[in-house]
Amino acid sequence: MFSDFYTKYEYAKKMLETELEILIHSFEIKHGYTPVEHMKSRLKTMPSIKKKLEEKGYSFTPDNIEKQINDIIGCRIVVSFLSDVYDIVSLISHSPNLIIKERKDYIANPKESGYTSYHIIALVPIYLENRVEYIQAEIQVRTVAMDFWASLDHKIRYKFHESIPEEVQKEMEHYAKDIQELDRKMYHLNQIMSKYQ
Description:
CATH architecture of the largest domain: 2-Layer Sandwich
CATH topology of the largest domain: Beta Polymerase, domain 2
Radius of gyration: 19 Å
Number of domains: 2
Order of helices and strands: HEHHEHEEEHH
Helix content: 40-55%
Number of helices: 6
Structural class: alpha+beta
Largest sheet: 5 strands, mixed
Strand content: 15-25%
């Protein structure tokens, strides 16, 4: 039962990857450059899905998986500059093959930890023998600086098992502001460079 269920997510991941590659390539043709540094996608493993459901207080069933977990399919798009984040978000938003279910702008509204990124929950169509199904996927769009911070933040939280000492937390908040300032400076540099192109 679960193997057939999981296969649908594998199909949807391939569909999403193809759609994003086409969108990014079309942007490159139109604008003469690609804003994307790299793109990576993954599927949550069944043990990871089960653990997340248990943490939320739900039993491990296909119905609960579909309703309670948005990020079985995860895709991260890392771009060069702050403005590129919103260009990519716009591309995804205007795709005729994806339905945007939810969006969270953690750039405009950073998390307490200082985490910044743009999250989209998209519905990805998969074409089965006699029907079309829509599968949820989470797409994160962030700059190189944001990606660096998110990776560091994850490692620190893993080391302290989410209970981070106050001294470390305060330092993290300072460094998060430094990262945000770096992104603003790089955005300003990009605007200056664009005058010479």
